[in-house]
Amino acid sequence: MNIALGNDHAGYPLKSHVVQVLSSLGVQIMDHGSYDEHPVDFPDITRLVCDSVLSGKAKRGIMVCGTGVGACIAANKIPGIRAAVCHDVYSAAQCVEHDDVNVMCIGAQIIGPTLAATYIATFLQAEFSTEEQFRRRVAKLSEMEKSFYNPSSS
Predict the structure, then answer these.
(1) Which InterPro entries match (predicted)?
(2) Disulfide: which of 34, 94, 111, 146 matches 115 by Cβ 3.0-4.6 Å?
(3) Is 145 a domain residue?
(4) pLDDT of 154 over the 70 cut
């Protein structure tokens, strides 16, 4: 499994641990930065992670910023991306199982290395449900994207 990883300067302190976790899980990492604590704009890094997911080069993406919120907002602006902030095990699993989330965002200032490891493993092991109700709802999300970005299709 290929995973696109990105972080901003606030997420950098947790990054090396996230890389270790991903490596221990046997995934290939596409590291989109940042590579130090110098300030960067999270939307730029988020875009790189999402582009890797949309192109199929990565199955899923993980963004690490201060709270996870900014990266999540940025990711959800991109058609085809479904991102979630995950700061508990339940949301790390259910966001994939029910909503087919393809980018997980975590906050380095919110959770530490041990919780990050648990949430990442949970996110990567989760599978989108085959139940019709969840498939129908995600299809409606896709339709919402299409009609928003192409108003004439409504």
Answers:
(1) RpiB_LacA_LacB, RpiB_LacA_LacB_sf, SPI_LacAB/RpiB
(2) 111
(3) no
(4) no
Asked whether residue 153 carries a pLDDT value surpassing 60, the answer given is no
Residue 150: the pLDDT is 66
Q: What percent of the chain has pLDDT over 70?
A: 96
pLDDT tens digit sequence for 80-126: 999 999 999 999 999 999 999 999 999 999 999 999 999 999 999 99
Q: Give residue for tokens 């129908």.
A: 136
Range of the domain at 72: 2-129
Cα–Cα nearest to 16, from 44, 2, 30, 35: 35
Report the C-alpha gap between 17 and 63 in whole angstroms: 13
DSSP 79-110: TT--EEE--SHHHHHHHHHHH---EEEEETTT
Short-list 66, 72, 65, CA closest to 91: 72
Q: What mean pLDDT, rounded, does the chain reach? A: 95
Residue 99 φ then ψ, to 5°: -120, 5
**Residues known to be catalytic:** 65, 98
Q: Sheet with 103-107: list strands edge to edge.
A: 28-31, 2-7, 60-65, 103-107, 83-85
Q: Report the CATH number that the domain containing residue 8 is assigned in CATH.
A: 3.40.1400.10
